[in-house]
Protein 1
Amino acid sequence: MAAVHSGLASIHRRFEAQYRCYSVAMLPGAARENVDYGGKVILPPSALDRLTRLSVSYPMLFELTNDLHDPPRVSHAGVLEFIAEEGRVYLPLWMMNTLLLEQGDLLTVKSTDLPRASYVKIQPQSTDFLEISDPKAVLEFALRNFSTLTTQDIFQIYYNEHLYEIAVLEVKPQNAANAVSVVETDVSVDFAPPLGYTEPKPHTQKTAETIHGPGAMAAIINFPELESLSSNDGSFLGQGQKLNGKPALIPPSRKRGVDKPPTPLRLPTGMLFFGFQVVPVKIAGSDPEEASQFDGKANTLRAAKRAKGDATDVIEID
């Protein structure tokens, strides 16, 4: 009976231990991107033995507390492996920054139970996140390396050689820990505008205005002033003379200028203008009527006389 009572007591006991914390970059061996940009920690083998004896169910979730800070900083994480040296725990760098931890600080690790997430609201910390073509797919892939999400945490994901920071603004269902489990659950994700993002101002389309005055190009080059200068040019002025001494007739000069502004082309709404119809220039000889001139049958005088029948003698001249 005592053994049964002790077994029931062990089921309700909570795992709790203190470790020296270090970033994943200091873990012996090759670099692990899924650990540094995820939400799981690496514990020593002794932790697995204690968790087994305490019958901690899957998924194993932990509450991480920095008691050295006032007030204490709290976050949550899952566990990836039990290969750390005894007395050490390895965390992602972003998690150490959230908990305000330095390398070698003491960290309290406690087992916990969290509800499965149904809703998460996040906020990218940079407008560079908007350059991702499919942010939901990227986030879904990145959350595979996470077991929990805690309100006010700022986690990091690595995508396409860029590092993105994302803040957790809200989680549901709401609970005292302000954290949820994202293991084997469907989560509705809501994106808040990125930090520093400003809504673009709507552009109002200007209606076409009636053109008054010279055309645009004439106004740019100041055509009226150039025209007046060219008309007042005094070069080669004088009166022409003929060889017979009579005065030469001066033809009236044609005045070039822009007396009136160009008339704007006004078309009904929905009509397109592709230019005026081109009338082809006639080329000499291309007209079939001209080409048929001087057509007919050739006749000679000799044949004409034979046709008359009244000539008796024919004189041929060689």
Protein 2
Amino acid sequence: MRKWHTVRNKAWLRALSYLIIVLVFYFLLKSLYQNWGNIAWSKLHFKLFYLLMSGTVVFLSYAISIYSWKLVLAEIGERVSYLQALKILGKSQLGKYLPGGIWMTASRLYLAEQEGLSKSRVLLASVVEQEYVFVTALVLSILFLGFHGSLLELNLSGLNLLFLLLALLFLNPLSLTYLLKLGMRLFRLEYQNWRFGLRLYLILVLGYGICWILQGLGFFLLAKSFYDLDLGWLKTFIGIYLSSWVIGFVAIFAPGGLGIREGSLALFLQGSFPTGLAVSLSLLSRVWTTILELLLFILAFIKKPEKPSN
């Protein structure tokens, strides 16, 4: 009986999460329809160069992210080639859009097993990756938008201070060493005399930090490909992009932050742009990101050319 109630509760929660996502997109599309006539069409244009540059810098961020994950695996005793890391991350990336929130990680473990890798080490490396990805995005969003906050005219000083303190607490070599040793102990992996080195820590902070800046730049270039924007908007666009990603990440009921990220993007952009344009850009951002992730997915199927036999 208890098991049946648990299953029913999970079904209700899943249905509620779907309803929230549908409602967010409904109100976004409704707002777009109502404000379509207010868009300044004279300021709109299409410049292929900026769109191509957007895709290029986002793909560069993917390349750095894959290399960073490869370094984490090597640190915990699982050496892989860059091509193997690309296959695992590229093929599993779209799993984040499936309901349940586990399919991206589950597909990574399956692909790792196919490559003859330790599923436990791949899982630990993925945990480290997610921690770095989230915390660096959170910290950079604070830095780019200003410590006091510049979204929705709210003073976020106290909240931002708390976030920065938590980042220092969890994202340092000592804490990561302890957490990873705990994880390695749980998975019965060898961990004697092992520690998370300062060099790797700095490389990962820099690597994931650059990844986020490049993705924020990609978002700015996407907007610039059809709307006149000067370089002075770059800092704000990066901060807004990162803030909306963080909100989508913590909304665990929404696969891949679907709907939540678009809603927060539109809300933040409305402070500086017409509503119709803000909503259009938020929806276009999701479409563009999905296209690039599909390209990465296809790229992950490329096989290493075999050496000709003598």
Protein 3
Amino acid sequence: MGGWKLEVFRMACYVTFPLAAMFLFSRPELFKERVIEARKRFHPPPNPERDDLIQQLKDRERLRREAEALEQMSHFQTKQKDSHAT
């Protein structure tokens, strides 16, 4: 078995390695271009035509859900009236 010196060395490695890796690899100049490219890929420039189409789809889906909810409510209300009438 190792002694206390080995344990101190291991602990120093456990602490030093992540800190050194963070210092070496988290510098902005190393990944600035990659971040800019990723931002362009995930957040494309605004396109009014596409935005209008997306808004139309959202509105159509909202109207469909509202109509479905109203139908379910009216069905439930008629069911309740029928059960109270009997």
